[in-house]
Hints:
Elements: E1 19-22, E2 25-28, E3 33-35, E4 39-43, H1 49-57, H2 59-62, H3 71-88, E5 92-97, E6 102-113, E7 116-125, H4 134-149, E8 154-160, H5 164-172, E9 176-183, E10 186-194
Antiparallel strand pairs: 1-2, 3-4, 4-5, 5-6, 6-7, 8-10, 9-10
The structure holds coenzyme A.
Organism: Bradyrhizobium shewense
GO molecular function: acyltransferase activity, transferring groups other than amino-acyl groups
Pfam families: Acetyltransf_3
Amino acid sequence: MTCRAKQRHDGIIGLDNTQIATGSGRHSASMDRFSTDNLTAERLNESHLADLVALHLDPEASRYIGGVRSAEATEKYLVANMAHWDQHGFGLWTLRTKDGAFAGRAGIRHILVDDVDEIEIAYAFTRNLWGRGFASEIATALTQIGLSQLELPSLIGIVYVANGASRRVLEKSNYLLERSTNRHGEDVVIYRIRR
Ligand SMILES: CC(C)(COP(=O)(O)OP(=O)(O)OC[C@H]1O[C@@H](n2cnc3c(N)ncnc32)[C@H](O)[C@@H]1OP(=O)(O)O)[C@@H](O)C(=O)NCCC(=O)NCCS
């Protein structure tokens, strides 16, 4: 896949390993890595397993993303999401704060919703970092990558009805509420943004 760097209006990313000028300076990035004002993103790899296991073992962080996962389940998750990168050229990134601390994971990935192949944005942060605007920052970046760089026709966000913070993040990122459905026994809402 070829992804061209573009002049950014929000100072977030560039692709293609190019140096691009943005509102907040020059950034070097590729699909494997990008950075936002407060976060760096690295394509998911085996070295991220321990951090992901810890994130997925936190009941609060996991509450609206399918519940606590065992280390074995997270290992399978990592393998599946690395395969997603190999197959599609995009997927999940591990996020770090600028001082290098693990912050969470986020990405763009295929998902089957009511038998339709959709592409969602997803994000989850360690609890100590909630409430600092990081999810909004990364949702904006993912949306820019998905719509402008990957030229996807639309992106969705699937959120448990009760997950007010994530719903707010999508609304702030200009996603529109499309419909409700039930997924794995949970009531969820689907938001969408179109290119
Ligand atoms: C949901 C989550 C990603 C939000 O991350 P965050 O970095 O705290 O989000 P932000 O700070 O960017 O924005 C949160 C917004 O929701 C608002 N908010 C927080 N709790 C809320 C609630 N219960 N109901 C409604 N809005 C809420 C905040 O005030 C903020 O809006 P504002 O900027 O207008 O004030 C984070 O809590 C998380 O990682 N949760 C666990 C994983 C998860 O649920 N992921 C999403 C799956 S769809």
